[in-house]
Design goal:
heterodimer, A: 297 residues, alpha/beta, five-stranded parallel sheet, B: 434 residues, nine-stranded mixed sheet, binds zinc ion
Chain lengths: 297, 434
């Protein structure tokens, strides 16, 4: 039994084992094995995310597990219960895994130090979103066979993106080159030390990319003046139809969702031939089944 | 009480008086009576401390301690803080005013002093607030604070963001000749930050606090200092940029002093590891380059004192999400061991180390003690430089255990502490006198 707190630190063969296993869970694959029959998986979502929670829920049900859904509304957190109190109470109900989303970076690490069951990070603050990175890698592997020698361009708000960090580690570990692009105000320092190439010029970077991953612009952060306006962002960093023209033949477009249509991504591009956005969503359940199996076996 | 004590054949290191060698030290009536190369005869009734192989030092003075009383006695009290101080070799501490009832009036100052008298262990020098309630809006009554016994004014824990107010504080304090001690942090630059901004904060996805949050304020205050001809003491310097500015200001003759904590000399931001709240402090642990700059600055005299910023907190303040964790660590009982790491590594000579812990802070704040010439108060710390031990937070005298150094191996330990000629700590025990 092990935790999935982040992709950082996982070896290539370990990541590949999860991805290989996920293939067996695709629709039409060998019938579900119900490896978690009679077990309980706890979904502990301090921050709402319908997509990710539903996806983990379906994954756990598909493996035969019962799902305990917990969210903070109207519960004891408002009465001053600490994160650890909550986690220990959940643990007392005997789950094999706690799937956890939290607005603070590192919150799952704290819980993992104090509980015995597996802790699976479903997104922590601006740190990691490992299951998203695995399903992105899975989607690319499906298209390409492997990631060696490929270039993935991640565009947008890198500073606040847990998807960007997890993907950086995941894609690098699987042999890809990762270029990140965005305005300097949304680019944290030291990305090169983590293995990324950094650029602020989307037009120059675009023709090199085998896949472009557009990140969601978090409009709620506009008040902090990271950007002058969404219009200017779109002009400099939006994947417009005109920019799509300049992409490599066969290059793919990705987005972790939900999309601000017309802002990060033109609707025609989001729904166009290059887009694998819906495949990302449908692969999510298979990958999360594999994650649950690996972490609880 | 007015015992006669003879410290025999210890290595006396007294930087102010240029002493470093084997000496006998005779103490009478709470003062140093004689320091001699030649062995002294044992006076009748004298207690003899055989200090062969030990260092006999001027008592350590900590310019930056949070005693938490009044208001947060569950974390520390003046009494428990004084116990921790003497166990760490400190014979005097400066108590920060950010208690829960801020020390911005003579009443609170007197309360702290009366608790210190009752504890009767080490000297406690309160620092008063610069502004009422530490709100940064109006000056506190500096004159009343000083006449009640404060030795400095500071809003420590917070910066004085209003530059005009800071300018007036420096001007006004010149009436009393006391240092204005500053916590340098531009809150607009540090807002929301949980650790130093750099590759580690990027890796962990934590909002970073850039070095400029400190350096910009150091620059501002040095400009104000030059205009006001005041006296500025910069607390817990953490980064290279600040060191450079302070060095240059001293070269130009400004009346600025500065301190650094042992943890900023020993740890860098990587100590945060996987969100260890014991490595969370303000200012944050910085990059290794900053640590290097601080180490150079203690050697070349840019930094005047090692001060612990002893900041006791409860377990529940630390066993939380990193962003929610309260800043600060306890420091009194680990300061000497950590300083000795630099001595053993050849980064700091013993004499300078002792100066940073005794004469340096005494001089910065104009406090008694910090040296061992005849007539000086018999505040003495005896150190075994080669004793190996392991930090055990559960055995701290402090009421709190928040330290990142639990389990760390140390070489060099405080074996005895004497205050005004009275033994207050020896054999691992604090000696209460009432
Ligand atoms: Zn402090």
């Amino acid at each position: 039994m092990r935790h999935l707190l982040g992709i950082e630190g996982w070896r290539r063969d370990e990541l590949e084992a999860v991805l290989d296993r996920a293939r067996a869970h695709l629709p039409g694959g060998p019938d579900a094995t119900h490896t978690l029959r009679g077990k309980v998986v706890a979904n502990l979502f301090f921050e709402d995310s319908t997509r990710t929670r539903t996806s983990f829920h379906m994954a756990a049900r598909g493996l035969g597990a019962g799902v305990l859904n917990w969210s903070p509304s109207g519960s004891s957190t408002s009465k001053g219960e600490t994160l650890l109190d909550t986690a220990r109470n959940i643990e007392a109900t005997g789950p094999v895994a706690i799937v956890m989303r939290h607005r603070s970076s590192g919150a799952p690490h704290l819980v993992a130090k104090h509980v015995r069951c597996a802790v699976i990070n479903a997104g922590d603050g601006t740190h990691e979103h490992p299951s998203q990175a695995l399903l992105d890698a899975f989607t690319l592997r499906q298209r390409w066979g492997g990631l060696d020698g490929r270039t993935v361009l991640i565009v947008g708000d890198i500073l606040h993106s847990r998807v960007a960090r997890s993907n950086l580690w995941c894609l690098k570990a699987l042999g890809a080159r990762v270029v990140v692009c965005g305005p300097p105000t949304l680019m944290p320092p030291g990305l090169e030390a983590l293995g990324a190439e950094v650029t602020h010029n989307l037009d120059a970077a675009l023709p090199q990319a085998d896949a472009v991953m557009c990140l969601r612009l978090q409009l709620e952060r506009m008040g902090e003046a990271f950007l002058p306006s969404t219009k200017e962002y779109s002009r400099l960093f939006g994947l417009t139809a005109a920019r799509e023209e300049r992409m490599k033949a066969g290059a793919l477009v990705m987005h972790p969702g939900p999309i601000n249509r017309g802002l990060e991504l033109a609707p025609s591009v989001a729904d166009g031939e290059r887009s694998v956005i819906l495949e990302q969503v449908s692969n999510g359940v298979a990958v999360r089944r594999a994650i649950l199996e690996v972490c609880t076996s | 009480m007015s015992a006669t004590v003879l410290f025999r054949r210890g290595r006396v290191i007294d930087p102010r008086n240029g002493v470093d060698g084997v000496r006998d030290v005779l103490v009478q009536d709470g003062k140093v009576a004689q320091v001699s190369d030649a062995p002294l005869a044992v006076p009748a009734g004298a207690e003899v401390v055989e200090a062969d192989g030990k260092w006999v030092l001027p008592g350590f003075i900590d310019l930056h301690v949070h005693l938490r009383e009044p208001g947060e006695e569950g974390k520390e009290t003046v009494l428990t803080g004084c116990r921790a101080a003497v166990a760490g070799g400190f014979t005097a501490v400066v108590a920060m005013p950010n208690t829960k009832v801020v020390n911005d009036s003579g009443l609170v100052t007197e309360l702290v002093l009366s608790r210190a008298r009752a504890a009767n262990l080490c000297h406690v020098y309160p620092a008063g607030a610069i502004t009422k309630g530490l709100k940064g809006e109006e000056l506190a009554e500096t004159g009343e604070l000083i006449s009640s016994g404060c030795v400095a004014i500071t809003d420590d824990g917070k910066p004085v963001m209003n530059a005009a107010l800071m300018r007036r504080a420096l001007q006004y304090a010149t009436l009393f000749g006391v240092p204005v001690m500053v916590h340098e942090e531009d809150l607009t630059l540090s807002a929301g930050g949980a650790m130093h901004e750099g590759p580690t904060s990027t890796r962990l996805g934590l909002r970073g606090i850039p070095a400029s949050a400190e350096v910009a304020m150091v620059a501002r205050d040095l400009v104000l200092l030059e205009e006001t001809k005041g006296r500025l003491h910069i607390a817990h310097v953490s980064c290279e940029g600040s060191v450079r500015l302070i060095r240059e200001a001293k070269r130009r003759g400004l009346f600025v002093t500065a301190e650094v904590t042992p943890h900023h000399l020993i740890l860098d931001d990587r100590a945060v590891g996987d969100y260890d709240t014991h490595a969370k402090m303000a200012p944050p642990l910085r990059a290794d380059r900053d640590v290097e700059a601080l180490r150079e600055a203690i050697v070349d005299g840019t930094i005047d004192a090692i001060a612990t910023d002893h900041a006791p907190h409860g377990v529940l303040d630390k066993q939380v999400e990193f962003e929610k964790g309260i800043n600060g660590i306890v420091g009194l009982e680990t300061a000497l061991g950590l300083t000795m790491e630099l001595v053993h590594a050849g980064r700091l000579d013993a004499k300078r180390a002792v100066e940073l812990l005794s004469h340096g802070p005494a001089k910065a704040f104009g406090l008694p003690g910090g040296h061992l010439a005849p007539g000086a108060p018999a505040d003495i710390t005896v150190v075994d430089p080669s004793e190996e031990w392991t930090v055990d937070a559960h055995r701290f005298y402090s009421r709190s255990r928040n330290t990142p150094f639990h389990g760390r191996k140390q070489k060099g330990r405080v074996v005895q502490t004497w205050v005004s000629g009275r033994k207050v700590y020896a054999d691992g025990q604090v000696k209460e006198s009432r």
